[in-house]
Write a structure and sequence with these properties.
Layout: H1 34-50, H2 57-72, H3 78-88, H4 93-98, H5 103-116, H6 122-125
Helix pairs in contact: 2-5, 3-5
C-alpha cells in the first residue's frame, strides 16, 4: 500500500490517515480487547456526528445520550449536556434540521434521554 503513495516533495505537509470500521455489528462486546471496543465506539460516534452514517432523529438522540454516558458518566446538568453537544459533534446536522434547526430542542431531548441512563456504566450502556 505504501508504494501507492506519491513521493513527498519539499513543502508537502504530513499525510493524514484515517482508519475506520467497515462493517458494523449489533453487539460490539464480541471484541475481546477494551481498546478495540473504544476504537469502534469512537469511529461510530465520529461517522454519525459528521453524517457519514445515517439514522433517524430519535435514534440519533438516543445514541447521543448513550455517547454522553460513556464519555462523561452520569448526567450533571442541562448546561453541561449542551456544552458537550456543542463541542463533541454528537448530532449530525440533518438531525438538528429535523428538529427545527434548534440545538436547544435537540439538547432538551438528549437531556431527557441522558438523565434516564444515570448509574449505568459504559459496559452496561451498550
Amino acid at each position: 500500500m505504501l508504494e501507492q503513495l506519491p513521493k513527498a516533495s519539499a513543502g508537502d505537509g504530513p499525510y493524514k490517515f484515517t482508519f475506520g470500521v467497515r462493517y458494523y455489528i449489533e453487539d460490539f462486546s464480541v471484541f475481546n480487547e477494551y481498546v478495540s471496543q473504544k476504537l469502534y465506539f469512537y469511529d461510530a460516534k465520529t461517522k454519525l456526528g459528521t453524517g457519514e452514517l445515517q439514522c433517524d432523529g430519535e435514534v440519533a438522540i438516543h445514541l447521543a445520550a448513550l455517547a454522553l454516558q460513556v464519555l462523561e458518566g452520569d448526567h450533571l446538568s442541562d448546561s453541561a449536556t449542551r456544552h458537550h453537544l456543542d463541542t463533541a459533534e454528537l448530532l449530525p446536522d440533518d438531525v438538528i434540521v429535523q428538529y427545527g434547526s434548534s440545538l436547544e430542542k435537540c439538547a432538551e431531548l438528549v437531556n431527557k434521554e441522558y438523565f434516564t441512563l444515570k448509574g449505568a456504566s459504559h459496559c452496561c450502556v451498550a
